[in-house]
Amino acid sequence: EADIYQTPRYLVIGTGKKITLECSQTMGHDKMYWYQQDPGMELHLIHYSYGVNSTEKGDLSSESTVSRIRTEHFPLTLESARPSHTSQYLCASSEWQGSNEKLFFGSGTQLSVL
Amino acid sequence: AQKVTQAQTEISVVEKEDVTLDCVYETRDTTYYLFWYKQPPSGELVFLIRRNSFDEQNEISGRYSWNFQKSTSSFNFTITASQVVDSAVYFCALSEALFGRYGGSQGNLIFGKGTKLSVKP
């Protein structure tokens, strides 16, 4: 149903590498989010955006950064990956359906930093 | 501070059994929203329901039903006649209601830790 894509699906990298997790949606949604999810744990909001050129930090402090140059694209970057960054990262976008804001999630990127 | 507690980490049932997933929340807001999301093995979260704090009517959608009790700060989710395809992690979430400069009426979601439901044939 949802047209929101995350790449890569899995990523294993060494410490110190710079990485970018891609997130794209073709639904024209203005609001987008990044969540971090550790195994068996709740999702924590790390970044969100209201639209082009808008980026906000979420509830959980993160060393990652995001950008929103185009509506459909909301990449997340880690300048120097560390083992503590090992986690699943979920991207989402939202739209209003009547009075409800509905989130659509991507399949996630499972990141392992060695 | 807002908090969502899902005390059941894992539940295992046999197909056709009914199962209830518990969700208890904490908030100081008088107006808020509650949600349930399903995360199947494929990873993406799927929206199931949103309920606002003004509406304590229980809701039924097919085999799914939700029991919102403001007095006990609970928003429990029941699956009737469970099926193998119901196997997933289910997350309860809470958001404040707000009317910001960008419009809209929903703050960012606070998720519980999830309940992993396994339905065996």
Count the strands of chain A? 11
Share in helix of chain A:
under 10%
Indicate the mean pLDDT of chain B: 87
Radius of gyration based on Cα positions of chain B: 14 Å
Which range does the strand content of chain A fall in?
Answer: over 45%
Mean model confidence by pLDDT of chain A = 89
Low-confidence stretches of chain A: none
* Rg calc of chain A: 14 Å
Name the biggest interface. A-B, 27 and 23 residues
List the helices and strands of chain A in order. EEEEEEEEEEE
Please write the string of helix (H) and strand (E) elements of chain B. Answer: EEEEEEEEEEEE
Number of strands of chain B: 12
- Shape field of chain A: globular
- Which percent range fits the helix content of chain B? under 10%
Which class best fits the helix and strand makeup of chain B? Answer: mainly beta
Please indicate the percent range of residues of chain B in DSSP E strands (runs of 2 or more): over 45%
- Let me know the largest β-sheet of chain A: 7 strands, mixed
Report, as a whole number of angstroms, the end-to-end distance of chain B.
Answer: 41 Å
Describe the biggest sheet of chain B? 6 strands, mixed
Global morphology of chain B: globular
Please, how many helices of chain B?
A: 0
